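Section 5.1 Outputs to date
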Amino acid sequence: MTTVGILGGTGPAGRGVAIRLASAGYDVMLGSRDAARAEVTATTLLPRGTGVVRGATNEAAADCELVIVATPWDAAVATVSALRSSLAHKTVISMVNALAREGKEVLPLYPSRGSMAAQLAFALPESTIVAAFHHLPARQMEDLDSQLDADVILCSDDERACEEVAAIVDSMPGLHAVIAGSMSLASAIEAFTAVCISINIRQKSYSYVKLAGLKH
């Protein structure tokens, strides 16, 4: 089965994706600038399946067959640029959102190319970028008993890669893939994350996106 590396995977968002991937049977390498930190974090994740989570450097995570970028938005381009050769000819999933906290709200920021997915696509011209995993509450993702039942919206300019990532998402407990379309939609998808987080702050909740009327 495909091995998955998560760059910047020790944060809440990366941990949530890692444990659900491993619970679906994938071997996951949790990447970090600090390998020791990643190794300790990996030991705290207890997936329910045949997959395992290991800690390593970002460089080691980039050597996996499929790579997810889960770094803070302002470090994402620099991180992947340094790993460009390792990421060439691979599918790279961007779950990065450019956001800023103002009081009790989170507001979207708009990178020069419109979205962080587009920024990564420009930085990695030999890689295939798929945007995914944006609207998920990290705490619910990491808690396998949370009864999460969320839709994950994907977009990419490569339809085949998008479908392959959708199949992986569908295999993860509590998640359902919804392909929206091309990379031109990434800006709107990423920006809506600010709405989701702001609602959860206001409501003191862990809500997520569920699109009614779809056939899964």
